[in-house]
Design brief:
alpha+beta, Beta-lactamase Inhibitory Protein, Chain:B, domain 1, four-stranded antiparallel sheet, 3 helices, rod-shaped
Length: 125
């Protein structure tokens, strides 16, 4: 019985010290209980925001002429070259038995696939 009483007194003293030291509030308790759940959601949002910001590429270096045209399906390779310039890599490949050519623009992360000299696919990585 004495040990049980001593343990209860130690627990009560610990709780009293915690209340004295931290001065907890109801909202503080709720925050501490929900922080792991809400914090992980906020971390995901922050991580996604950082990824999007880091993927941003300047539209055009200062002083360079800026084209208002956009790349779209069906454009000829000459039109694409006029807008984006010479590709960094040209990769021939075959997809579903059809021969295609992929132009890779490393700086902007663009992948443009051509079939028969016309754009059939545009991807950004």
């Amino acid at each position: 019985m004495k040990i049980r009483t001593a343990v209860i007194l130690v627990v009560i003293a610990g709780v009293a010290y915690w209340i004295y030291k931290d001065r907890p509030t109801v909202s503080g308790l709720v925050d501490s209980l929900t922080r792991p759940i809400m914090g992980s959601n906020a971390a995901v949002k922050e991580s996604e925001h950082k990824r999007v910001v880091s993927d941003v590429v300047p539209a055009a270096p200062e002083g360079d002429p800026v084209s208002v045209q956009t790349i779209r399906k069906g454009m000829k390779s000459d039109e694409v070259r006029e807008i984006l310039g010479k590709p960094d890599r040209v990769e021939p490949f075959e997809e579903d038995g059809v021969s295609r050519i992929r132009w890779v623009y490393l700086a902007t992360g663009r992948l443009i696939d051509f079939e028969g000299g016309r754009v059939v696919s545009i991807a950004i990585r």
